[in-house]
Amino acid sequence: MSRIRHEAPVSKEVIMLQGISIKNLSFSYDNDRLILKDINMEVYAGEFVCLLGQSGCGKSTFLRLLMGLETPTAGEILLNDQPIKGPSLDRGVVFQDYSLFPWMTAGDNIMLALQQRFPQRKKKELKQLAVDKLKDVGLDSSVYIKLPKELSGGMNQRCAIAQAFSMDPSILLMDEPFGALDAITRARLQDLVLELWSKQTSKKTVFFVTHDVDEAILLANRIVVLGQSPSTVIYEDHISEEKRPTRENQFKDPEVLRRRNELILQINNDVVSRIS
Ligand SMILES: Nc1ncnc2c1ncn2[C@@H]1O[C@H](COP(=O)(O)OP(=O)(O)O)[C@@H](O)[C@H]1O
Ligand SMILES: [Mg+2]
After folding, report:
1. Last residue of some domain: 136, 168, 200?
2. What is the pLDDT of residues 89-117, one digit of tens each?
3. Model-level pTM greater than 0.85?
4. Which residues contact 142 (CB under 8 A, 6 or more apart)?
């Protein structure tokens, strides 16, 4: 079965779209305590997947495995049928904090990523690309020379998103990127990520970690819920692009409310079964 659903990208520099196949994945940091247990999942190229689970259940660990920073204790993770061997420029990452080097300006942070990704291109050309990417995330060129500490949390995350998208990775890994932001900034950035993702001619596969049910409902084509440690997939919901909830109907549409209730119920059942 092919996991490639979209047309091949036009630019030679765009790496082929990639699906992720996770087979019987278990992971332990110290061979003592399993963090992830027997996880099976297919992520199709171009899908927006939200990984939902409580604090400490192993979501960041899961992303570290996808980044190639950890190796499965058992099972495997395949990208286009090849096991992950380590970090790669075809997987962009946005964290809640520390996505940017604090000693470098926003522009230099983006340039650093661009120069790694496109070493054959001229510096002047890349600088223009960095400015364009800042514009794409709603920031003007004055931000280019600002240090992260001179920018608000929301602006920092906009820069981190600009950096991740500027590298044109086929897979974007996001670890609670809006977890530290106020509700309005968070809503704006959720809309921004969806807009950037959906306007690509060849959509990136996004793996977005959150503990927020409503964030997952708004963003995902597929929601995967991890239970408590050792975590495994306790529930999955697939939302077709045509039925994607909007900010307007999110708390009104009976179908969206049913999905929301079911998600909360599944998480609650897991909690109850563990503490009783
Ligand atoms: N580097 C590490 N070494 C040992 N244990 C770790 C390490 N990182 C995380 N853990 C443990 O793994 C479990 C899952 O952590 P994490 O993946 O950060 O969860 P989440 O992101 O869902 O909050 C926690 O019990 C945490 O203490
Ligand atoms: Mg985490």
Report:
1. 168
2. 889 999 888 789 999 999 999 999 999 99
3. yes
4. none
Alpha-carbon distance of 103 to 109, in angstroms, equals 9
31 CB less than 6 Å from ligand 1? no
Check whether residue 20 and residue 35 sit in a common domain.
yes
| CB-neighbour burial class of residue 90 (10 A; exposed 0-12, middle 13-18, buried 19+) | middle
**Same-domain pairing of 68 and 181:** yes
Per-residue burial over 50-75, b if 16 or more Cβ lie within 10 Å, else e, is bbbbbeebbbbbbbbbbbbebebbeb
Is the same domain home to 147 and 69? no
Closest residue by CA, ligand 1 atom 25: 56
DSSP H/E element including 6: none
- DSSP 3-state of 96: coil
Structure tokens at 183: 């509700």
| Cα of 58 from ligand 1 centre, angstroms | 6
Over residues 227-274, the pLDDT tens digits come to 987 999 999 999 988 889 999 999 999 999 999 999 999 999 888 887
Residue 3 lies in domain: 1-90+169-276
How far, in Å, from the CA of 56 to the mean position of ligand 1? 6
The residue type of 9 is: P
Residue with the two structure tokens 């395949």 = 78
- What CATH number does the domain containing 247 carry? 3.40.50.300
- Please give the distance, rounded to the nearest whole angstrom, from the Cα atom of residue 93 to the centre of ligand 1: 18
Among the bound ligands, the one closest to the CA of 35: 1
| Same structural domain, 163 and 191 | no
